[in-house]
Amino acid sequence: MNSVLMNRISVGRLAGIINKRLVVTRSVSTSSKKHDTAVVTDVCEKQQSVVQEQSKVNKNWISYGFHTKDKTEDRFWTHITFFTTITLCMTMGFLFFAYMPDHTFREWAQREAFLEIARREKNGLPLLDPNLIDLSKVQLPSDEELGDTEIII
After folding, report:
1. Is the pTM of this model over 0.85?
2. CA-to-CA distance for 95 and 26, rounded, in angstroms?
3. What is the rounded distance in angstroms from the CA atom of residue 88 to the CA atom of residue 95?
């Protein structure tokens, strides 16, 4: 079993080596063409300038998407964008909502209720007046209108 496993591993390695060599090899014509040679200098100079520009940029640099050619511009706009969104928008937005005025008057109603309770206790009045609404203004249904309806008090 061990020899079968070793044979499979060696065959796999050999296949990998053969595949790499097939990919690397190129067909090149070796016939001598003495009269068909030409020298191109403009293309070489342009390629050298492109290579020099690309060598200035760090090979391992990956753009954040703000600038694809210049690393410093890309970092600058990245920092400005994140500072603006995180610090200004989110922090200032949370502060705005935290200190925003109470448009529903919920806090005002609670403060007013505490003041009214304190006033009634000071004057010796009950906390809730049983005659808050005048009884002559209240219209209750008659016994005939209620019928068999159960009344729970």
Report:
1. no
2. 67
3. 10
